[in-house]
Amino acid sequence: MITEECINCGACEPECPVEAITAGEEIYEIDPSKCVECEGHYDEPQCAAVCPTDACVPDPEHPKS
Fold first, then answer.
1. By C-alpha distance, which of 37, 35, 45, 42 is closest to 11?
2. Buried b / exposed e along 19-50 (16+ C-beta atoms within 10 A)
3. H and E: helices and strands count for the chain
4. CB-based burial of residue 51 (10 Å sphere; 0-12 exposed, 13-18 middle, 19+ buried)?
5. What is the pLDDT of residue 65?
6. Which one of 4, 24, 35, 55 counts the least CB within 10 Å of its CB?
7. CA 25 remoteness from chain centre
8. What is the DSSP string of 4-27?
9. What's the average pLDDT block by block, 10 residues per block, for the chain (65 residues)?
10. Contact present, 5 and 14 (Cβ < 8 Å)
11. Beta carbons of 36 and 18 less than 8 angstroms apart
C-alpha cells in the first residue's frame, strides 16, 4: 500500500511490473488485487526500493498469500 507519506512524485508507477500502481486524486495507489509484491519479477518490491519517502509498505489488510 502507499501511505499518506507519498509526495506524488511518480517514481513508483513505471517500476511496477504488473501495472498495479496508478495516480490517485492526491497520492498514488496500489490495486491489491493486481500487486504481487514483485514476486517472480524482482527480489524486492520495486515501488518500495525507489520511493524517496518510504511510503510504499506491505498492506496488513492484504497480506501476500
1. 45
2. ebbeeeeeebbbeeeebebbeeeeeebbbbee
3. 1, 2
4. buried
5. 65
6. 4
7. 16
8. TT-----SSGGG-TT--EEE-SSS
9. 97 98 97 96 97 96 80
10. no
11. yes
Per-residue pLDDT tens over the stretch 34-49: 999 999 999 999 999 9
Contact of 19 with 9, CB cutoff 8 Å: no
Can you tell me the distance from the alpha carbon of 19 to that of 29, in angstroms, rounded to the nearest whole number? Answer: 11
The count of residues in the chain is 65
User: How far is the first Cα of the chain from the last one, in angstroms, to the nearest whole number?
Assistant: 15
C-alpha cell at 39: 514476486
Cell of 25: 486524486
